[in-house]
Amino acid sequence: MSTPAIEQAREEDRLNRAFAALSDPLRRQLVARLALGDATVNELAAPFDVTLQAVSRHLKVLQGAGLISRRRDAQRRPCHLEPAAFGPLGEWIETYRERTEQKYGRLDAVLAEETQRRTEQDKRRTEQDKGKQP
Q1: DSSP annotation of 72
Q2: Ordered DSSP codes for 86-109
Q3: CA atoms within a 13 Å half-sphere pointing along the CA-CB vector of 70
Q4: CATH fold group of domain 3-81
């Protein structure tokens, strides 16, 4: 494979891992919490009715996708959201949003033309009906 093809495959793999990581509702909630600031596993687990081990597993998935990082701060190991990792996700979504908007724009134009055509037909019929009345 050529270098651009390898890089494209890597980027696709990163996107797949990130979207897979975000497919779980609890992981999305953890990301939302981390958007407010760094937190430890205990702090992240507190509002949920799940074990610390379950939260740790979810965090490993997020970390494996590059969406969060963990560092050692004395006895603490806070998790940190990696905002740059969300850039490619947003770009991918934006591409399809733009394409979809273009398709809907074309559909809107067709519907507007059809509405105009029918309005003109109705106007002509009304005028013809008025001409038929004594």
Answers
A1: -
A2: GHHHHHHHHHHHHHHHHHHHHHHH
A3: 15
A4: Arc Repressor Mutant, subunit A (1.10.10)
pLDDT at 48: 94
Which amino acid would we find at residue 31? V
Tokens of 55: 């939260």
The answer to whether 28 and 42 are in contact (CB under 8 A) is: no
- The number of angstroms, rounded, from the C-alpha of 43 to the middle of its chain's C-alpha atoms is 26
- The CB density around residue 22, as the number of other CB atoms within 10 Å, is 17
**Could you tell me which of 4, 61, 73, 70 has the C-alpha nearest to residue 28?**
61
Here the tokens at position 119 are: 């309005």
pLDDT tens-digit map of 19-65: 999 999 999 999 999 999 999 999 999 999 999 999 999 999 999 99
Ranges of each domain in the chain? 3-81, 83-134
The three-class DSSP label of residue 71 is coil
79 in helix, strand or coil?
strand
